[in-house]
Amino acid sequence: MVTSILPLRLDRAFVKRRGKMLAGPVDLDLTGDGVTILMGPNGAGKTTLLRMMHGIERLSGGTVTWAADEETARAAQSFVFQTPVIMRRSVLENLMYPLRLTGVAKAAARKRAEDACAMIGLAGQEGQRATRLSGGEKQKLALARALIRDPQVLFLDEPCANLDGASTREIETLLQAAAGRGTGIIMSTHSIGQAKRLARDMLFMNRGRLIEHSPADVFFTSATTPEARAFLNGDILE
Amino acid sequence: MSDIWEGLRAAAWLLISFDADLWEITLRSLRVTLTALLIACVIAMPLGALLVLRRFWARRFVIALLNSLMGLPPVVVGLIVYLMLSRSGPFGVLNLLFTPTAMVIAQVIIITPLIASITHQALRELWSEYHDLLISLNTSIFQRVRTLLWDGRRTLLTAALAGFGRAIGEVGAIMVVGGNIDNATRVLTTAIALETGKGDFAMALGLGMVLIGLAVTVNLAIHWLTGTERAGRW
């Protein structure tokens, strides 16, 4: 049995850069399984909060702790960035890369990468230069690469921000399949529709503060803070 | 004017007839330069990558130093290597002065800063692209260096070619440490200097043509081998 890295606990964690509070202080307990959606206006600190949880943003104070030691925790999570980072390699080599880093043998890594390639509908394009893929294909590739190590927790930062309906649906299908396999997903989005389709839990941020954390059905019917209610009504938050 | 035509005609003849001296000198030039290039790349490329990845206290200083060393006068490098390798110098016991090895050492010193500096500039851009991903994947510093060098190999080729160009055309340092000894340390550039001094313009021009031809051929060969201009590749 693999040790679970959840729950994730943030204790007064905040990030401050050049005197400006980007996110926090945040207190949060995430038990994790299922899809947790993070919403909030631009500049609310969603990206910063996700990066803090993932451990790639230096904390200015407070703590972020997983239920496992740091090395185990880091190895069991992955992150999909808003603008996918596509390596200057073939599609297949992009998918093999995380596996080869952890010492998976070449043949085994190739096999798993080929499966992942088929999963995202890029079978037959394994040898293609990944930087030449379309925007939607790049995002799917980044998602498949993030899932290839079977992470316990997957972070996504507005993965569908620049995608059309069809690509968005493909990404959502992949996410629901991953969630069904037990991967905890924590993702930010601007689309209320997407949040309603996917979320089990909702987080809502405004001005760097996490102001709501509730089950999705509660959030969408009876959000407690006026900011969240205004946001859901389509008002513009200043 | 007639001197030049005479020279060109004689030079062409030397080339066509595969003149033994010319052939030997050319091969030696290539051997010395390629050896130096290989050693310099092995030192300079990981160094350039580390300068991108590591934020240590002397980083800015090392980069500034490399950039200024790029303009190092070869003849001064030659002088220093000469002093190091001469009988009374610290490495005198190795008996390396006036050997091809001494020439390789001098060339490595001349081109390593150049290659490291170009590598650093090329990989800095790649690192800003890969930064988030490689941090997120929890890569070790060694894995990062390897990834950057591999994925940046196209741009690193430019660095290597710049190093080759500087080394193959270099004369000041290898003249001093090699001594331009016939059948031992005479290479294209030192031979040209010698033949020009002697007034044998045919040989000098022939050697010059070979030198230019060599540089162009190596550049073309590498570009062709790696398919730089082909579409759909890196």
From TrEMBL, chain A:
Gene Ontology MF annotations: ATP binding; ATP hydrolysis activity; transmembrane transporter activity
PROSITE patterns in alphabetical order: ABC_TRANSPORTER_1 (PS00211), ABC_TRANSPORTER_2 (PS50893)
A Gene Ontology term for the protein's cellular component: plasma membrane
Keyword terms, alphabetized: ATP-binding, Nucleotide-binding
Keyword ATP-binding tagged: yes
Keyword ATP-binding in annotation: yes
UniProt-listed Pfam families: ABC_tran
Stretches assigned to the ABC transporter domain: 8-232
Domain of life assignment: Bacteria
InterPro entries, per database record: AAA+_ATPase, ABC_transporter-like_ATP-bd, ABC_transporter-like_CS, ABC_transpr_LolD-like, P-loop_NTPase
Name of the featured protein: ATP-binding cassette domain-containing protein
UniProt organism field: Halocynthiibacter styelae
Organism phylogeny: Bacteria, Pseudomonadati, Pseudomonadota, Alphaproteobacteria, Rhodobacterales
TrEMBL record, chain B:
Gene Ontology BP terms: transmembrane transport
Keyword Transmembrane attached: yes
ABC transmembrane type-1 domain residues: 26-222
Transmembrane residue ranges: 32-53, 65-85, 97-116, 156-181, 201-225
Cell location: Cell membrane
Bilayer topology: Multi-pass membrane protein
Domain of life according to the entry: Bacteria
Keyword annotations: Membrane, Transmembrane, Transmembrane helix, Transport
NCBIfam families reported for this sequence: ABC_perm1
Family: Belongs to the binding-protein-dependent transport system permease family.
Protein name: ABC transporter permease
